[in-house]
């Protein structure tokens, strides 16, 4: 996406509140009974002020992957194959516990920013949710069910609109509706969720791939099972276009990483900045006004 001298630089803000909501107990993280009480990667939120004074709150999150890693073997290195199928099942459960708790945590932030005023407050939740639109963890982020795009209730206002988020996936052309390739099949695991106030403004949604791509899967990683040799995560970017009083505005969103998925060798601050760069396009809108961290969450 091109930028020029009129574009406003992004100010990145890290949320201090990585902890799970108080009502949610710590989750089991391994066979030793170790527990986790906060998000593995944290989340990030910024507030964009448009030229006419309206604000858009953007939440970016990268939830726990379904890719499993097992306790170190005799060499001291992590294993990517289980000792037996019981271990595989347990470790998959621990990953699901964490992804679920992280979805609940991000939804809590969305609730705070929506404040029961989703028809007026412009809120977007986006990022790599590491599961598809119908997955339970993705559904947690939506809030009240029953009005998903493509269903009869989508155009029927109700009380749930105050808290509801809509997944824009159905507006992506069918041929583009995936962000990575897994076992030869396209999967959509990166998402754009918007409040009612933004829904009507999101007139187009697309995924982006390299200009020299020939086939629909070109430019995307192709993962096969537990294949770590596939390299760092690099998914398709999204672009959604909405209308302001000045005309078209584009927001690009992506999850392309420049280090390995674990941030090996990086300090905590560097790891966070790397996570920020994975989604840097989420923080910049073309001539959108000022951008600042969202304040007031924990």
UniProtKB/TrEMBL annotation:
Gene3D superfamilies: Endonuclease/exonuclease/phosphatase. SUPFAM superfamilies: DNase I-like. Residues 61-209 form the Endonuclease/exonuclease/phosphatase domain. This is Endonuclease/exonuclease/phosphatase domain-containing protein. GO terms for molecular function: catalytic activity. Pfam families: Exo_endo_phos.
